[in-house]
Design goal:
The complex is a heterodimer. Chain A is an alpha+beta fold. Chain A has eight helices and four strands; from the N terminus they run H-H-H-H-H-E-H-E-H-E-H-E. Chain A has a four-stranded mixed β-sheet. In chain A, helix 1 runs parallel beside helix 6. The relative contact order of chain A is 0.17. Chain B has four helices and 30 strands. Classes of the chains: A alpha+beta, B mainly beta. The interface between A and B is large, with 38 and 44 residues.
Chain lengths: ~200, ~475
């Protein structure tokens, strides 16, 4: 989904230019559903039932209808929203927690969406690439998440709608041990936790 | 002098105070002293020479023949115990362990009275074991005896009994007791490792694809009996053993923000010590087990805190706008080493444990240093992860002299050192063998041993 930063920026700009349907249009094919899990741990948010495959296909056939798309965003479950999130990840330079211009552009887009859906509560996850110790990367991830939260609050999002958590280098988005892979892993990822 | 020190160590051992041991090899004639007399007269020789020596200046040569099965169904257990005992003794490198295949032609004695001392003498052995295993139902009785080949005297004799479920434990126990008796050394054969692993390849619960759970595992010090102790299907990090090795503290994301949980692993009891206040990482039990030092962002910035084991009496130790993390206790609990990036890059610092005062920087010649781990006595050194080129290696800072030595040299990226309880070994992780795996190595950089082989494994902790 985020194969290049340029694509992310372009999509974010499209989002900024106002189309509630933007999220629908930029949607890639749905990933396969994970296998059902035998045991469920205690969870803060109850897990909604999986979406019906048929309903998804009907939506995909009508991506151009803005009103319907908006309803579909509003009506989608948290799991559905997060599997194909309208909130874009923001990327960072090596060993940096500063949001650069492209990062701010992406976060600006996310802020617009949060203003459109004021009941949404979001967890900002800070992630790092594998260069750096496991321990210190937990710090860097925390800083990245906090930097994004501070910026979003400065744009008018209430702090209590934004939770931060650092995953250090534990969950790379791209497993490749290359600069291309690393650049995708240095990121702030947004998870909608309540709507 | 050498002789005197050996005597002192033995006296300490006999008084039940382990932890001291003399590094130089005693001569072949060294005997257990009955008193502190520096030059005992021949008439004052004790009844039995307990410590088996080798040739002057070299470690004694040990042979561990197969244990004898007193009943046919004990054969497998007997074979296991003999091999594991050899491995345990070889691991500490206090003795020279004669390779077992070189004495396959010497038939194991059927009884302690039948030990073929002449054959062992010809092989060059200074010490030879006799062992037997008797099994009845699920119970076993294991006899372990150690003989001085030169004098043909028995210097060690123990009988262990218990269940047949984990025969390795009998070998581990005998190895620890022989090390204590012969070298006044606390062996590590009964210690355990804990680490994080993604080997189950289970997918994380929740809305995000492409993530695998990481659970806490434990294993014997030699990698045997690896098993999972958490089933959260979430991310769990940085295990730490309680001093009694009955509990493991770790941080878990099961409540989304990481909290410090304490798992009483033999009772199945789980305690949430940080009670969902902020994000909490990297718990480390104090040497007496009553406190836990940890990292938290509960006051806004990432700082180091200490709390009672039950989560009460949380006190903040650091106050700095930079990032403070990865604490480790000094063996007497008076000081804490930690990582801070107040200089721009992560470096190791030391502070007083009581109030966070007297902060001073330890690593001054590293570009990047993290995960300090303080050696137990009798050593006085701190191991850490240091950047060496693009990746990382393990280095050790001797506190008395300030000298730094490196013990890994760019074979993969090496991180996360953790000392064994006797200070002679370190566990760490390396990418040298595919994935990230746990290894152990001597503090002198010798004796590398791979512990894990499945999935990725990280942040080892070594029990006392």
């Amino acid at each position: 989904m985020f194969t290049s930063r340029g694509l992310g920026i372009a999509l974010a700009i499209v989002c900024l230019l106002a189309a509630p349907a933007c999220a629908r249009r930029s949607k890639p094919p749905l990933p396969p559903q994970p296998a059902p899990l035998a045991e469920a741990p205690p969870s803060v948010t109850p897990t909604p039932p999986p979406p019906r495959a048929g309903a998804q296909r009907v939506e995909d056939l009508q991506p151009a209808a803005p009103a319907l798309s908006e309803d579909s965003v509003a009506n989608r479950s948290l799991d559905e929203l997060n599997r194909d999130s309208p909130l874009r990840p923001a990327f960072f330079l090596l060993d940096s927690s500063d949001l650069d211009d492209s990062g701010r552009t992406i976060v600006n887009g996310n802020v617009e969406i949060l203003k459109k859906y004021p009941q949404w509560v979001v967890t900002i996850e800070g992630h790092c690439d594998e260069r750096g110790t496991a321990e210190y990367n937990l710090a860097l991830g925390e800083r990245r998440a906090s930097a994004v939260k501070t910026y979003m609050v400065s744009l008018g999002i209430a702090p209590d709608r934004l939770r931060t958590v650092s995953y250090g280098k534990e969950f790379p988005f791209d497993q490749a041990h290359t600069e291309d892979g690393w650049s995708k892993n240095r990121r702030a990822h947004f998870v909608i936790t309540a709507k | 002098m050498r002789r005197l020190r050996t005597h002192a160590a033995l006296l300490a051992m006999l008084a039940g105070t382990a932890g001291l041991w003399s590094s130089p090899w005693p001569g072949a004639s060294t005997a257990a002293a009955a008193g502190q007399n520096q030059t005992p007269a021949p008439s004052q020789q004790p009844e039995i020479e307990l410590v088996i020596g080798g040739d002057a200046g070299t470690p004694p040569r040990y042979a561990v023949p197969d244990f004898v099965a007193s009943s046919p169904d004990a054969a497998e257990i007997a074979k296991t115990i003999g091999q594991v005992l050899w491995d345990d003794l070889a691991f500490e490198r206090e003795f020279y362990l004669i390779p077992r295949d070189t004495y396959s032609t010497i038939p194991p004695a059927r009884s302690p009275e039948q030990v073929p001392f002449a054959a062992w003498r010809e092989l060059g052995a200074d010490a030879v074991f006799f062992g037997s295993v008797q099994k009845s139902g699920d119970k076993v009785v294991v006899q372990v005896r150690l003989f001085n080949v030169r004098t043909r005297q028995q210097v060690f004799s123990k009988e262990y009994s218990g269940t047949a479920s984990n025969p390795r434990l009998y070998a581990h126990t005998a190895a620890d007791e022989v090390h204590l008796q012969q070298r006044a050394l606390r062996g590590v054969a009964r210690t355990k490792l804990s680490f994080v692993s993604d080997r189950n390849r289970e997918r994380l619960l929740g809305p995000i694809d492409n993530r695998e759970v990481k659970e806490i595992y434990i294993a014997d010090y030699d990698g045997a009996n690896q098993r999972r102790i958490t089933t959260t299907r979430q991310l769990n990090l940085n295990p730490s053993w309680s001093p009694d090795a009955r509990a493991v503290a770790y941080s878990s994301y099961r409540n989304i923000t990481p909290q410090i949980f304490i798992s009483l692993i033999y009772q199945g009891v789980l305690e949430n010590a940080t009670k969902n206040v902020g994000s909490n990482f990297m718990p480390v039990f104090s040497p007496d087990g009553t406190k836990i030092v940890f990292v938290s962002n509960r006051d806004g910035n990432t700082e180091i805190y200490v709390m009672n084991r039950d989560g009460s009496n949380v006190r903040r130790l650091t106050t700095h706008p930079a990032y403070e993390s990865t604490p480790t206790w000094s063996p007497n609990a008076a000081q804490i080493a930690f990582t801070s990036d107040r200089s721009g890059k992560p470096q190791i610092y030391i502070m007083n444990a009581a109030d966070g005062s007297n902060v001073r920087r330890l690593t001054v010649n590293e570009s990047y240093a993290d995960r300090a781990t303080w050696s137990p006595a009798p050593f006085n050194e701190i191991a850490y992860t240091a950047q060496t080129g693009e990746w990382y290696d393990i280095k050790i800072h001797e506190l008395a002299t300030g000298t730094v030595r490196q013990i890994t040299f760019g074979e993969g990226s090496n991180e996360g050192p953790a000392y064994s309880s006797n200070g002679k070994h370190l566990a760490f992780t390396s990418t040298r063998a595919g994935g990230t795996q746990v290894f152990t190595i001597g503090r002198d950089g010798r004796g590398l041993k791979q512990i894990t082989r499945s999935g990725n494994n990280q942040t080892p902790a070594w029990s006392q």
